[in-house]
Design goal:
4-stranded antiparallel sheet; single chain; mainly beta; Immunoglobulin-like
Amino acid sequence: MEGRHHPARLRRSVPGRWRVGVAALAVGAAALVPATVNAAPVDRTDDVSIQAVAHQMPFPCGQTWSGQTRTNHSPQRAIDLNRTGDDGDPVVASAAGTVVHRGTMAGTGYGNLVVIRHSDGTASYYAHLSAFSVSLNQSVSRGQQIGRVGSTGGSTGPHLHYEQRTAYRGGVVPVVWNGSTVLYYGTRSYTSNNCGGSSNPYTAEQVCGSGYRVIDSQALGTAGRVYLLYNSGTNCVVTLKRTNVGTPTSTSAFLEPQGSSRSTDSGSFRYYAGPVKRSAPAICVRWGGSTGGQSYTSPFEHCG
């Protein structure tokens, strides 16, 4: 791969102009989310925040989403999240816990819903999913994929309806991410720090460059995470380290369009492997990477 052995790899320069398409996020945001979600009758709204569990945004590290909160939202403390082309994007657990609900919920407009109970008995809700990535009673870690963004139930367009509650079917409380409480009513952009406690200063979108957005990712144990990004027919793969950050260790990333040869970036890197870029419009790709003795290889997928 071009530049693979460049000495600067030890300090990792990144593109000078980093953006994630935030300007496009707010366009039509109100039209993409429902006016209300019919919550279970036992719901109530409490003016308290969940403090015991450290939640992060329910999207992979570095992604930026438009979040909408409304006084006429039911439940009022919920937040709706969307971005351009988000249908099918990965949804991840905002905190570790156990899946206590996977499916629809009678009498509500949630559609496909995952509910995770956390160690302190509180719960997080992920609604309108197009697909599930977990099973009932499964233990999940923070940042683990649990489903994909969709428009099931009482939804007028693809988005994620997200809540934090005092318990499963308990009171709805203000959303807390990265130690900050979301009390603002209106539409704002939020960037995920759901990075598994990583001290890595880079994001996958920074590494791939302007216009790329994360469409999938996979944890490599606690050692790192490999990301698949896309921009106008071109895929990009990056493996970000989460342990031994700043110390050169064996790390790799690869990308293989179906019917073509595999491109790989591997070596002893301080922060990440990649970016590995290949043009693959309407072609299935196999992607993956490794770090810290952990590796991942996907099937051929993302064929659109």
